[in-house]
Protein 1
Amino acid sequence: MLHLILLLTALVFANAQTDCVLCEYVIQTAEQLIVQNATEAQILAFLESACILLPSPYNETCYTAIETQGPQIIQWLVDKESPEVVCTQLALCPTTEVQGGDYCSICELVVGYVEAAISSNATEQQIEAGLDQLCAALPTGAPQCVAVVNAYTPQIIKWIMSNEDPDTFCTQAGLCTAFDAVWDLPEDATFAKF
């Protein structure tokens, strides 16, 4: 549950794709409840519990979505619609989501998670395990997430532990620009700037 809390907190502070990434993660987790034969009430309770973890005004928007779309969300899950499709139907993801790898938003997501984990006194091993779960939960961005995590996690931890502004890390690393450009990160990328 700690990882879910940390993830949801980190997602809230990510960039404009926050709603989409958060939605996909929650829907993917709710899919597991369908596989486990959870009742509609249990699934709705899970979705509402995800809302509780969000700060205002996100939690209010989340509650409204569950109240108005809850049964439809469950039906989409029963029909085996993907998280991408469900979240697009809920207008939380764009219809043409970036498939090629938005390293900027992935980096911001990872930094947000690490920042929340450090605030919760997580160990480096716990942070790494949580990041593995985070990447696995991203249906469309898992390879890019793994690349960012493998290349930058130690530097992100050092950056945050040095009380540097977490919001500037991804720009300093060259993964974000003023225009939110998408950069290709080579698999053997190293962190030479810090």
Protein 2
Amino acid sequence: MNKILVVDDEVKSCDLIKRFLEAKGYDVITAGNGVEALEKLKRDLVDLIIADILMPEMDGFQLCRECKSNDTLRMIPFIFYTATYISKKDEEFALSLGAEKFIVKPLNLDKLLKIMKTTIKECRSAAPKTPKILIKEDEVYLAGYSKRLVAKLEKKVLDLEKEIKLRKKMEEDIIKTQKLESLSILAGGIAHDFINFLLIILGNIMRAKGCTNPKEKNF
């Protein structure tokens, strides 16, 4: 039975993959971030690691580098499964760390399982990959890592600005709607009061002419 380590801080996503793989006969352990994953790998060696990238404490990039620079863990095939880092540059950096696959969420779980099976089979029949970036200085890794973080942060800022503009427009539309509704209610109230006021005047005129019904036209 193959043992899989699923690393994701999104509990629902992690549990979904765990239940799916267990139903297919796999032994699955989970971790909420890279630090927790490394602790579990000290106790349990697994046949495959599938990890998200954006996580607290230690993200997927750092986890992959730690695994691929460890003589024991580097033999374990590593798959990135991400919904946040999805650009071509992100993929290139991930693969340069030694990851076997880079998959963008969401993906049909049956397709994900097929990729996992293929990856495990390929890694068992081939020599372990040497991470390109580990051949270089740490500064090179940090530079590449920082670029990915900055690029993601810039995108998040742009997304946030768009969200703020959208929310502001929605609020303005709501205020306009509320103002129109208030104006309509006010206009309705004024019209009602105005009609009543005219009826009072008309009634007074009628009474002055000796007519008791304000609707009569004999004046």
